[in-house]
């Protein structure tokens, strides 16, 4: 479905007035996401995960490499089939918009009948676990978890086949994280969605993903095809990420 091949991306960096250097952010990234599959892309801050996401979405252009979606290589041809949920739900939603307008904006002119549009928006809210009462609330009147549910409703409004989730639960506290992960899991099964789940959190990956790719300094360093194989990873970087999670576990004496 989504095939990323040999993506290279760099930025110019300024050091003082005249000195400029080239910073390689992505160094030939290749990966694929099949229909109905959730692939986790896990890596430390600054490793280039969001840059890869932006290239997939067509917000940034790659210096080399190709993205194809169901065989289509032009972003114009596949943009209707993909969607995104970002970490920063507060800046991805206009706080002065009512919930109904946040979702309605994504629909554009695709539904012209007002009543039909309203009924569809209410059905989307119901899908993400929000009652009709939320539709008239302003975005700034919602909690982080509720707002992220609205962002998910907006993301599925256009009936995409693939959703890029860039740190979609990272700003939420752990109990709300779990609720949103559960929602994402249910939506994936119901609509046979594919996800690329970008994160730096191994626990979230084990909860939601079918496969995981470890990402370091712009490169895929290891991939795990089945989550039960996580214990057999060998790259020192992947091992150190897993060890960090183990260290967070509550010690026996508590
Ligand atoms: N538009 C840009 N201009 C210059 N450098 C950029 C630009 N966008 C990203 N970078 C640099 O590319 C590198 C990778 O950034 P990116 O946002 O992709 O990392 P990330 O893995 O998503 O990190 P995080 O986990 O913190 O979100 C960083 O060093 C960043 O400063
Ligand atoms: Mg990022």
UniProtKB/TrEMBL annotation:
<protein>
    <submittedName>
        <fullName>ATPase component of various ABC-type transport systems with duplicated ATPase domain</fullName>
    </submittedName>
</protein>
<dbReference type="InterPro" id="IPR003593">
    <property type="entry name" value="AAA+_ATPase"/>
</dbReference>
<dbReference type="GO" id="GO:0005524">
    <property type="term" value="F:ATP binding"/>
</dbReference>
<keyword id="KW-0813">Transport</keyword>
<dbReference type="InterPro" id="IPR050319">
    <property type="entry name" value="ABC_transp_ATP-bind"/>
</dbReference>
<dbReference type="GO" id="GO:0055085">
    <property type="term" value="P:transmembrane transport"/>
</dbReference>
<dbReference type="InterPro" id="IPR017871">
    <property type="entry name" value="ABC_transporter-like_CS"/>
</dbReference>
<dbReference type="InterPro" id="IPR027417">
    <property type="entry name" value="P-loop_NTPase"/>
</dbReference>
<dbReference type="InterPro" id="IPR003439">
    <property type="entry name" value="ABC_transporter-like_ATP-bd"/>
</dbReference>
<feature type="domain" description="ABC transporter">
    <location>
        <begin position="2"/>
        <end position="242"/>
    </location>
</feature>
<dbReference type="Pfam" id="PF00005">
    <property type="entry name" value="ABC_tran"/>
</dbReference>
<keyword id="KW-0067">ATP-binding</keyword>
<dbReference type="GO" id="GO:0016887">
    <property type="term" value="F:ATP hydrolysis activity"/>
</dbReference>
<keyword id="KW-0547">Nucleotide-binding</keyword>
<comment type="similarity">
    <text>Belongs to the ABC transporter superfamily.</text>
</comment>
């Amino acid at each position: 479905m989504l095939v990323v091949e040999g993506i290279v991306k760099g930025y110019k960096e300024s050091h003082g007035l005249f000195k400029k250097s080239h910073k390689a952010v992505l160094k030939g990234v290749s990966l694929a996401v099949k229909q109905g599959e959730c692939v986790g892309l896990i890596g430390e801050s600054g490793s280039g995960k969001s840059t890869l996401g932006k290239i997939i979405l067509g917000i940034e252009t790659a210096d080399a490499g190709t993205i194809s979606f169901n065989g289509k290589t032009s972003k114009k041809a596949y943009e209707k089939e993909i969607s995104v949920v970002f970490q920063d739900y507060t800046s991805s939603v206009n706080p002065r918009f009512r919930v109904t307008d946040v979702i309605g904006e994504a629909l554009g002119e695709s539904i012209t009948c007002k009543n039909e549009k309203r009924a569809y928006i209410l059905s989307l809210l119901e899908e993400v676990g929000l009652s009709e009462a939320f539709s008239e609330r302003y975005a700034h009147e919602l909690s982080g978890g509720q707002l992220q549910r609205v962002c998910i409703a907006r993301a599925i409004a256009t009936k995409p086949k693939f959703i890029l989730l860039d740190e979609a639960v990272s700003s939420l506290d752990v109990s709300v994280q779990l609720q949103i992960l559960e929602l994402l899991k249910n939506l994936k099964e119901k609509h046979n969605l594919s996800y690329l789940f970008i994160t730096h959190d191994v626990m979230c990956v084990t909860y939601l993903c079918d496969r995981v790719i470890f990402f370091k300094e712009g490169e895929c360093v290891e991939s795990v095809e089945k989550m039960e194989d996580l214990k057999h990873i060998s790259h020192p970087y992947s091992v150190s990420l897993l060890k960090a999670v183990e260290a967070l576990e509550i010690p026996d004496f508590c």
